Amino acid sequence: MSVDEILLRSRFNPLKYVLCYDVFNTGFNGWMTLMPNFTEYPDFDVPKTLVNKDQWPPVMLSSATYRYPGTHGAMSGTFSLKLSTRPVANPYTEKPAEGSMGHAIKRLSFLRPESRFLQIECWFSYTAEQDKVDGGDRPQPGLHENSIRDFGMGFDTQNRGNRFFTGMRYLNAVDGKMMQKWQYIHSTEGVTDKEWAYGLEGDWCKKGVDHWWFGRRYPNGDHDGYKDLPDGHQKLIYNETDCKLNWQYMRMKVDTLDRHYVEFQCQDRIWDMRNIKIDTVDPYRRIDNLINPVFWVSTDANRRVFLYVDSVVVSQE
Fold this sequence. Notes:
The chain is built from 2 helices and 18 strands. It has one domain: Jelly Rolls. The mean pLDDT is 93. A hairpin with a 3-residue loop joins β3 (65-66) and β4. The relative contact order is 0.26. The two termini are 22 Å apart. It is globular, with a radius of gyration of 19 Å. It has helices at 3-11, 193-196; strands at 17-23, 60-62, 65-66, 70-71, 80-84, 101-105, 108-109, 117-128, 148-159, 162-174, 177-185, 226-233, 248-255, 260-266, 269-272, 280-281, 290-299, 305-316. By secondary structure, the chain is mainly beta.
């Protein structure tokens, strides 16, 4: 058995068929920035929308270099996949500021017609930029933990006549107030397409699609695109300085046949989600049998924040 096979089976819990095992020390492995759709007449403009996505920073391979320790490296080897934001943020209840989010996506398709379960798992770490020390009226004014709004992973999927989004986000902070809880993708009943698109009539995106940047947000951390995971409060490892990375594990399993969540795990905690249905929308043209795994991160302050992903496994059975 090779070292890669040993690591796959000891650090992950894949389903029967492994679609991809991406260790970013070997390259991008097909992950790229989630870009706008440059499709409109006459100059390949983007469709009408209030959310400008052309400022989302590109994903990169990073050795996680910091001023004091130098190169941190990855969990395996030197490089991990790094998602970043620009140092801009709107209040939580407003639409995302241009550049306040970073995304990575890999574009796949279903392989076996009998497959029912779909799973994504990874090792990750997150931190904020040490750009300046905040005012001294708070503990550890250079830590910036509350500058990270959220991060997460999920799927944009279409099969058997429906498009549906599944995913978990860690809501870390809302306007500087720590939340530290998990939420799952599920859009609120009764929301109109116009409300989903921040009041714009005729946005190309429909309610239930692209929860990362659409859907109304509320001062307490609620969101028209997410629901709180029951007993979902969890304090993750955010070490004593922004240059100390701890690699942490998370995994999500969904049922693509009966359209419900199955299980979520982060570190050594496991949540049974079999009673949570997945909401669906009408299919889009030309993307039948779509499996698009996605990662994202967003900032809660005018400071860059980062999500590092060491390795990812997508599997089916």
